[in-house]
Amino acid sequence: MNRNALIIGAICIGVVSVVFCWPKYTPDQVPGTYRGAHFGGSEVIEIRRDGTFSQTFVMASKVYSSSGKWEIRGSNISFSPFLYLAHAAKFQPHETGIFCTAWDLERGKIYMGEDNDYWVTKQ
What are the residues whose beta carbons fall under 8 Å from the beta carbon of 120, sequence distance 6 or more? Predict the structure, then answer.
């Protein structure tokens, strides 16, 4: 069998499995209250059905907050603006323009870090 045919066949199988096996989430499954504890603080994100959200992070008696809009972008959820918490123990949290996250609604989690190193869980 031709090596190129094997490669093309493997690619086709991969594409078909992603298209038919990848979880199909709808915007109705996302809204709710999500909570997480990381960087020595606690975070609450309230995602609303109208496409808006609010985010609150409390660390060392200081409260940081943000609010804006969210939407599904492929397999990610996009928040704009978003309170960026990476390295919050060293630096003050700050708002970013658009922040895309990975999500696993079967487990009720939205992963926030670049390496999925912190997340919030749906309550």
Answer: 34, 35, 36, 43, 44, 45, 109, 110, 112
pLDDT of residue 86: 65
Residue with tokens 């959820």: 77
Type of residue at 109: K
Domains, the chain: 26-122 (2.40.128.640)
Predicted structure pTM score = 0.73
Per-residue DSSP letters for the chain? Answer: --HHHHHHHHHHHHHHHHHHHS----GGGS-EEEEEEETTEEEEEEE-TTSEEEEEEEETTEEEEEEEEEEEETTEEEEESEEE-TTTTTS--EEES-EEEEEETTTTEEE-STTS--EEEE-
